[in-house]
Design goal:
The complex is a heterodimer of chains A (349) and B (286). In chain A, strand 1, helix 2 (35-52) and strand 2 form a beta-alpha-beta unit. In chain A, the strands form two sheets. In chain A, strands 1, 2, 3, 4, 7, 8 and 9 form a seven-stranded mixed β-sheet that branches. Chain A has a two-stranded parallel sheet with strand order 5-6. With 349 residues, chain A is of the alpha/beta class. Chain A starts with a helix and ends in a 6-residue tail after the last helix. In chain A, helix 2 runs antiparallel to helix 11. Chain A folds into two domains: 19-130 and 255-311, Periplasmic binding protein-like II (D-Maltodextrin-Binding Protein, domain 2), CATH 3.40.190; 133-254 and 323-343, 3-Layer(aba) Sandwich (D-Maltodextrin-Binding Protein, domain 2), CATH 3.40.190.10. Chain A has helices at residues 2-24, 35-52, 64-73, 87-95, 115-121, 169-181, 191-203, 211-219, 230-238, 268-279, 281-291, 304-309, 314-318, 325-343, and strands spanning 26-30, 55-59, 82-86, 126-138, 161-164, 204-208, 225-229, 243-246, 254-260. Chain A is globular, with a radius of gyration of 23 Å. Chain A has 14 helices and nine strands. Chain B has one domain (37-283): MetI-like (MetI-like fold, Orthogonal Bundle). Chain B has 13 helices and no strands. In chain B, helix 12 packs antiparallel against helix 13. The longest helix of chain B is centred in the N-terminal third of the chain and has 34 residues, at 61-94. Classes of the chains: A alpha/beta (349), B mainly alpha (286). The A-B interface holds A 65-66, 68-69, 72, 92, 165-167, 206-207, 209, 220, 222, 329, 332-333, 336-337, 340-341, 344-345, 347, 349 and B 60, 62, 128-129, 147, 149-151, 228, 232-234, 236, 244, 246-252.
Chain lengths: 349, 286
């Protein structure tokens, strides 16, 4: 009797202690599924676990918009410790106190990132990856090398281009890039961009929100050219689809991907270690060569063929158009209304 | 004579089974609903009390157009579902054929596949390079693809397919409740099958028709995936606009206003439907 009297509480205390210890060593990382998941597990997460002994639970559910909505709905306690989002969401979440600000003491590798790109993401976003909006085309339908957004306006592509809907940030970015190309600017004068887009809308095969649906039309040959994030474009090239992509000479806008830690994350210390690990030179090299994207670290060493396509140097970064993302986010509703009034009626479907 | 047990011995006991569902509804419906109403009165930037989102919703033509589009789409789907479901339900209720169970299985088969899968199926059938357009072009009946997808037509077709089983079930229950002897009596007295259908079955199945219309209308009005995939860039309805405000513009107050308007519309149509049903009952003397 005495033995069981002491044994049960002792077991309970032991279990709670073990559970607590296991919990303290577990980090929940939320990101994407598909090829992304396989690459991040192999190149970043497993090496991190080996180095630190921290166990990572990978959660591939949800897009960055859905993840951010979850952070907002739970007031910074979404149930994951690190999340992959965008610079725009980093700025908004930081302003609302939903994301943890990073300091150079907690994340020393932040100091190695390009200052201009880091500034785009604000104090709560650690830029771990750069993509750019590329011009993607079918090489079996369009001959010769391409280097300009002007390809989209070529009469031979009537009914053969796919455009993003306004709910895909590429739409606003394309209007911005076209504005700069035709004498406007990134924020205050988008008239030239909207004018070109009106023309494109009337000649487009259609509009789609999802990148995966957009790429299906290109794969089956119904569409011959479109704007597309270069990371996915490279995956298409690697998979053998007859396509090629380029960073147009008129300039383009980057997709600044960030690591974020929600303000109510349960394993904040481990989360900060993970962010710092991802930004290290070795991890950035592994990520750039594995996922075929660019980096905000210009000191990384990667093969020449990857360097030629990705943003990896100061010179590459200087060719990008970098709009103020805070101002862009604030103006999106007005641009969206203008899109609905000017672009949607001009669209065939 | 045995004593009749008192039915008022435990006056509150009869409500006990209602406590769990009531608690669940309070926790997972009433509380979030209250929070949503609260959010709708917040300023999207500062969070302070504001009526701006309501003002914006009812004064911006693009948003009002979204309500009208939602009502037109839902009305067409409700009519289409009910008209298509009625013959199927009547057959299932009255037939003794051995094919009855097969037809019943086919009628509810659309529910066995996910809504996104079914919608993609329609996209493949209806789009420019889809089965129907390819077939019509192959026959030489048309030279260019018909606009079957990425518009109102495509959405109505897709939603009718998704919601049809619910219409069939609502009408089936109603028609099965009609006494068959009434139909037999009318036929013995010389009424044709059409007259029986027109003067006996149709009036008596009014509750089922109204249920089918209401179920289809409310399901269509709140549907997201089908309008998003089959509607295209030109066809925005309230459900897709709510998603857009939450996920893209991160404007939750405006999204909350839209959701509340959608809810009020559904409640108003349900109330109007029940009123119409009772009036028809009186008018038809059934």
């Amino acid at each position: 009797m005495m033995r069981s009297t002491y044994l049960i509480p002792a077991l309970a205390v032991g279990l709670v202690t073990i559970a607590g210890a296991a919990r303290a060593e577990e980090l929940v990382v939320n990101s994407y599924g598909g090829p992304y998941e396989a690459i991040i597990l192999e190149r970043i997460i497993h090496p991190f676990e080996e180095k630190t002994g921290i166990s990572v639970l990978y959660d591939p559910v949800g897009s960055s918009s859905q993840d951010y909505a979850k952070i907002k709905a739970t007031k910074g306690r979404p149930g994951f410790d690190v999340v992959v989002m965008t610079a725009s969401q980093s700025l908004d979440g930081c302003a609302e106190g939903l994301l943890e600000p990073f300091t150079p003491q907690a994340v020393p590798n932040l100091a190695h990132l390009n200052a201009a790109v880091s500034k785009m993401a604000g104090p709560c976003g650690a830029v771990h990856e750069l993509q750019y909006m590329s011009l993607l085309w079918r090489t079996d339908k369009i001959s010769g090398a391409q280097d300009s957004w002007a390809l989209l306006s070529d009469p031979m592509l009537d009914g053969k281009i796919m455009l993003p809907t306004f709910q895909n940030i590429m739409a606003a970015n394309l209007v911005q890039a076209l504005s700069v190309m035709h004498g406007g600017d990134l924020l205050d004068n988008l008239d030239p961009g909207f004018a070109v887009m009106r023309d494109l809308a009337g000649r487009a095969y259609g509009f789609e929100q999802s990148s995966s649906i957009m790429e299906n039309y290109l794969k089956d040959g119904q569409v011959w050219a479109m704007p597309f994030w270069n990371g996915r474009a490279q995956l298409l090239v690697d998979s053998g689809v007859p396509v090629d992509y380029v960073r147009p000479k008129e300039g383009t806008i980057p997709l600044v991907a960030t690591l974020n830690v929600p303000s109510g994350a349960q394993n904040k210390d481990a989360a900060l270690k993970f962010v710092d690990f991802f930004l290290s030179k070795q991890s950035q090299e592994a990520w750039v060569t594995g996922y075929k994207v660019g980096s905000a670290r210009s000191d990384i060493e990667v093969p020449a063929e990857i360097r030629a396509r990705q943003i990896t140097t100061e010179a590459d970064l200087n060719t990008l158009l970098l709009p103020d993302l805070g101002v862009t986010a604030a103006r999106l509703p007005d641009w969206g209304k203008r899109w609905d009034r000017e672009i949607v009626p001009a669209a065939k479907r | 004579m045995p004593a009749v047990p008192s039915r008022r011995r435990f006056p509150l006991g009869g409500y006990a089974p209602l406590v769990p569902p009531f608690a669940v509804l309070m926790l997972f419906f009433a509380v979030p609903m209250g929070m949503m109403i609260g959010i709708s009165f917040q300023d999207s930037d500062t969070g302070a009390f504001s009526l701006d989102s309501y003002h914006r919703f009812f004064t911006e033509d693009l948003l009002v157009a979204g309500i009208i589009r939602t009502l037109v789409m839902s009305g067409l789907v409700a009519l289409s579902v009910t008209v298509m479901a009625y013959p199927v339900a009547y057959f299932l209720a009255r037939s003794t054929s051995r094919w009855r169970s097969v037809i019943f299985a086919l009628a509810i088969a659309p529910e066995l596949a996910g809504v996104v899968l079914r919608t993609y199926g329609w996209l493949i059938i209806l789009e420019d390079g889809g089965f129907i357009n390819d077939f019509l072009i192959w026959l030489g009946l048309i030279s260019a693809p018909l606009p079957l997808a990425k518009n109102l037509f495509g959405v109505v077709v897709g939603l009718t397919h998704v919601i049809l089983p619910f219409g069939v079930l609502a009408l089936l229950t109603s028609i099965q409740g009609i006494d068959r002897n009434l139909e037999k009596s009318a036929q013995i007295l010389g009424a044709s099958r059409l007259a029986v259908l027109r003067h006996i079955v149709l009036p008596l199945s009014v509750p089922g028709i109204v249920s089918s219309l209401l179920i289809a209308f409310t399901m269509a009005a709140s549907a997201y995936a089908t309008p998003a995939l089959l509607g295209g860039s030109r066809f925005k309805v309230l459900a897709t606009m709510i998603y857009e405000q939450i996920m893209f513009y991160i404007n939750w107050p405006l999204a909350a206003v839209m959701a509340i308007v959608l809810l009020i519309l559904m409640l108003a149509f349900s109330y109007a439907g029940s009123k119409v049903e009772s009036r028809l009952h009186k008018k038809l003397h059934v």
